[in-house]
């Protein structure tokens, strides 16, 4: 059998980045949530925020540690497996990756020590500042890495000399056409993902009757945040789709499995694409809905895949189904948030067992949606690494033999299948223990200061302070 | 039109960045190796707490080094990294193992032995792989059409194995110096004992590399032994001998910081020795720093931020070390 180094290198990249992306999907949201909790603690003096924060910091540190070590792997992939791409695009993309390392990675890593271990060593405000710096660091991280990714999808501000890309206008490079949409869509996705993890853990604790005060704060606060974030995410996703239609029409055609350019087109719910015959078998479609969603008009036009040469077309089935999985989860999340409004109005939010059970089940779905969305955009931009300009097959390191890549892929698989499930087990165990509950005396805890008086509205019913 | 070149300043930044990585992750990888020789869980906890708050900050310098190479000298990145395909793979996987072991061994008591082993072997294998990379880099790679053109196992030579072993004992020496600085009593005594063994092996290895390198390459021999270079460069070996003697004294004495400072000085001198041998090549035998450099626009764009951010990073990294200064206490860590 002939082993193809390009396909194996793509699988390897998908494997290492697919696992890695799960960590920032959680840590970016969680860093902001912890900073919010620490800030609320400093400014309101309520100790419940501190207990919730300490609880999540422990879980955060597990995910962050795994995120750091699996992140170190990433820049080296560009060199080991994609050296032609590194030589070709290094002048433009190198600084974007490097700025990520400089502004973000270091901010996180330097203040993380204080956040994780320094509570007894620094005053509460300094601890809050450290939390804030970690949160800002994670957002800078997302900014630069998504800028680089977006440039590969919608390159701008460059010139080509001797087959290599050189920068012409850095602002155009950084703020390339798809970047604002991708940044907003991804960061919101990470916030929503984290939100549903918090909601799931809180719901689980409430069902078990553990750490009830803390779990109520988590559940109520986070469902309020999600009330804004989930609809916002659907709106941003729609805008991102319009951007894709303009700049990467082949990707959009693949996502929608449209072969012919047409007006007033339907929305395909399920198809079996048949690329060899340039058609779909068995399509289930809703008339007009496609053009309504994608063009915001009933007689809008979509470019079909036949407009593109066969060698320039992405695969169809993967983006088609991955996109539907992502969008489906998004609307399921909206339904859960809407249900929470009704239960809140009925004052049943903390008691409805079916709703709390549903919340627990929703916990992992944000991660599934992130992976599905990432698969949609990355498979959909094939066969290019730099869209329309540099082919994936011409980006791979020329010295690589298929066997070498197979060996490294198997090694990454073996190690990641030990590391990531272990991290999950450890995080789940920490979550199961729940936050520490308030001491009966309300005495000083942790920071060495007396905690604020217990807040009445956070107490379980029938209990007075 | 290129009257102003940013190559010199990027050379300094890259050189300093890689050295800071070698020094910082060097001591915590070294501590990771000595960790395997600690007799009980209590002393292992202390040893791990001596680096727990700082290790991931240290490791980010590896990322910075890699990314600075990609940005400032993309051609060198595109040749060196694929040439070291397997050592880099092994290093990364070993770093993954030892990195997660920090968290996992505290959180999974029933599998503590597994993660203890992961931490020890991860630290050692990552170090050995880095040493191999150093040796392979000094020997040079086969290049054609702006790309590495050799085989996947070209890196494996007797010379690179020697540099691999040298680095294992070198990092362990740095780690011993760090433990002398951060611990007391029985653990410190152990650190001094292991430090003495490491120092002896390191000196032998450095001597072997110093003889072997000029024998391998006429260029290197000319650089060091032609007149007047031999006179100008003679402070390097002389200073090395003096530093080695002072480090030995401090290992046997009562100094708390002498070993770490001495080990650091040995690394500075060895690093300088390698730089003198290879200058001005960044892909030995093929490309100079200037030839491999990225465009002035790229270097300038990154330089603006770097000149602002790098000092800030150094300040708050130092602050981070300052917060955790002094002897390590058993109660500050993952509990």
Overall pLDDT of chain A: 87
Overall structural domain count of chain B: 1
Span of the ends, CA to CA of chain A? 73 Å
Mean pLDDT of chain B: 88
What's the overall geometry of chain B?
globular
Specify Rg of chain B, calculated over alpha carbons: 20 Å
The computed structural class of chain A is mainly alpha
Strand content of chain B: under 5%
Please outline the major beta sheet of chain B.
2 strands, antiparallel
The proportion of residues forming helix of chain B, as a percent range, comes to over 70%
Number of strand segments of chain B? 4
Percent range for β-strand residues of chain A: 5-15%
Task: Give an overview of the whole structure.
The complex is a heterodimer of chains A (465) and B (335). Chain A has one domain (5-238, 317-458). In chain A, a hairpin with a 2-residue loop joins strand 1 and strand 2 (164-167). Chain A is globular, with a radius of gyration of 24 Å. Helix content of chain A is 67%, strand content 7%. Chain A has 13 helices and eight strands. Residues 441-465 of chain A have low confidence and may be disordered. Chain B has a single domain (7-323), classed as Formate dehydrogenase/DMSO reductase fold. Chain B has 14 helices and four strands. Chain B has helices at residues 7-35, 41-49, 55-72, 74-83, 85-107, 112-139, 158-182, 185-216, 218-225, 229-233, 235-252, 258-278, 289-292, 296-323, and strands at 143-144, 147-148, 281-283, 287-288. The longest helix of chain B has 32 residues, at 185-216. Chain B is globular, with a radius of gyration of 20 Å. Chains A and B meet through helix 2, helix 3 and helix 13 of A and helix 3, helix 4, helix 5, strand 2 and helix 14 of B.
